[in-house]
Each structure stands twice: as structure tokens, then as C-alpha cells.
Design goal:
With 258 residues, the chain is α/β, with parallel strands linked by helices. It is 16% helix and 35% strand. The protein contains five helices and 15 strands. The strands form three sheets. Strands 10-9-8-7-11-12-15 form a seven-stranded mixed sheet, sandwiched between helices. The chain has a six-stranded antiparallel beta barrel with strand order 1-2-5-4-3-6. A two-stranded antiparallel sheet has the order 13-14. Strand 11, helix 4 and strand 12 form a beta-alpha-beta unit. The chain is globular, with a radius of gyration of 18 Å. The two termini are 32 Å apart.
């Protein structure tokens, strides 16, 4: 897909919880096509110590309002600067980058979307598109505690949602792969995004039960176009750049020792 460098204008900045912010941005022209799983590189102008853009998953594209959403977790100076943007501020972006999740051909397939922490971001857009295409997805969303479970009400409008928290403050206590819904493997396809150990566990579950699985990797990225080699992942096809060849991979391609 064609890539664009756009100055987007912030329309809303909503703090979801302590370290998470939802940014909504628009453009004077219609936004380009963007697919679930793709990401953008956001330039940080208000942090003198931040030299590189920040890769952020596309959380949703609202065509009616001509808005693109980014779910940002504040972890350092760069993301802190992005989280401080206010309506009317301008943010320079490169988008869309990377590949996307694939869509099953048969609407009757049973689909499971598993997200952890801020990794739920691309799964919301994916879930919205799956519902539009006639699917009825099931979600498992995990986090450390209830305050870290993001966009809960939005996911609940899309389908059945199961929650896990490490401290037991919401849903079942434990990790996403501990949820009781998985005791009876009844899914045809699994999508996942989140911390690597979580995705490795989800991929192992899918492999054990012979279920197709796609994972959106969150390797550290700098350039976003495959030039800097920061995000290289070892795969069945050799060492490849996640930003340009991914970030979405069928887990059969990944050498995760599973």
C-alpha cells in the first residue's frame, strides 16, 4: 500500500487510565486506506531528547469522522510528549506501514482474538472489521489489573469478551492462556497481540490444537521501513525486518521454540 507523510490535527485526547491515552486525529483530506494490524510512525516534536519517531499501532479508523485513533502507553519521554498533545495540535505521521491481519474466507469460522495490555490496540480495529464482514469474534483481554484493561465497553459491543488479570481484580485470575474458555478448543483461527511471552504462549496453544494463528509483533522499531535493522526477527525464511515484512506473521513462520 502507498505510504503517506501527513500532518494530522488532534481532535481529542482522552486519558483511559494512569498511563494510557487515546489520541484521535484528522486531516483536511480523506484519510488514506488503512488496514487492521498496520501501524504509523509518529514524529515527536516537543521532546528535545527524542530523535526517532515512535511506532504506534492503528487502533481504529473512523471513516464517518475522518479520524484515525492511536492508543498510547506512556513509557518514556517520547510517548509522554505524544500523550500531552491537545486538540488543535499538529502531529506529523507516516502511514500506513507494515502488513495487516488476514480475514478468513468462511463467515462461519469461529475466531478468537487475544490481547494483552496495550497490545489490544490493533485487535479493536480488527474486531470491528470482522463484525462488518459477518463474523462473531470472541475476545480474551488480559492485563496486570482491572485499571489496565482498556476500551472494555467498546470490545463488549463487538462480541463475547473474556477478561483475565494477574491480580484477579477483574475476570479470571492469571494469564490469558489460563482462561477457562480455552479448556475446550473450539476455534478455527486465533489472532494475538501483546507482550512476546504472552504471544508465544498463545502460539503454543494454537499449535497444540492445530489452530491457525497470526501474531502482531511488537519488536522495537526505529525507521519503520526496514532500513535500520532494529526489529529483526528470526523466522523460517531467515532474519527479516518486522516493520517492513510484518508486523503480522502466521506463527508457523516464527522460530519461537514452541
Amino acid at each position: 500500500m502507498k505510504k503517506y507523510i501527513l500532518d494530522l490535527t488532534v481532535t481529542d485526547n482522552k486519558r483511559l487510565s494512569g498511563n494510557y491515552v487515546l489520541l484521535k486525529l484528522t486531516h483536511r483530506d480523506p484519510l488514506p486506506d488503512m488496514l487492521p494490524g498496520q501501524f504509523a510512525e509518529l514524529r515527536v516534536d516537543s521532546s528535545p531528547d527524542t530523535f526517532l519517531r515512535r511506532p504506534i499501532s492503528i487502533n481504529y479508523v473512523d471513516r464517518e469522522k475522518n479520524e484515525v485513533w492511536f492508543l498510547i502507553q506512556v513509557v518514556g519521554a517520547g510517548t509522554r510528549a505524544l500523550a500531552s498533545l491537545q486538540p488543535g495540535d499538529v502531529l506529523n505521521t507516516i502511514l500506513p506501514l507494515g502488513n495487516s491481519f488476514t480475514f478468513p474466507e468462511k463467515p462461519l469460522k469461529k475466531l478468537l482474538l487475544v490481547g494483552g495490555g496495550v497490545g489490544i490496540a490493533p485487535l479493536f480495529y480488527l474486531g470491528k472489521e470482522l463484525v462488518k464482514q459477518g463474523f462473531d469474534p470472541t475476545f480474551i483481554l488480559g492485563a496486570r489489573s482491572e485499571s489496565d484493561l482498556l476500551q472494555r465497553e467498546k470490545f463488549e459491543k463487538l462480541g463475547k469478551v473474556c477478561f483475565t488479570t494477574e491480580d484477579g481484580s477483574c475476570g479470571e485470575k492469571g494469564f490469558v492462556t489460563h482462561h477457562s474458555i480455552l479448556t475446550t478448543p473450539d476455534f478455527d483461527f486465533v489472532y494475538t497481540c501483546g507482550p512476546k511471552p504472552m504471544m508465544m504462549a498463545v502460539a503454543a496453544y494454537a499449535k497444540k490444537h492445530n489452530i491457525e494463528c497470526e501474531a502482531s509483533l511488537e519488536n522495537k522499531m526505529a525507521c519503520g521501513i526496514g532500513a535500520c535493522l532494529c526489529c529483526v526477527e528470526n523466522t523460517t525464511e531467515g532474519h527479516i525486518c518486522v516493520c517492513s515484512e510484518g508486523p503480522v506473521f502466521n506463527t508457523k513462520q516464527l522460530l519461537w521454540q514452541i
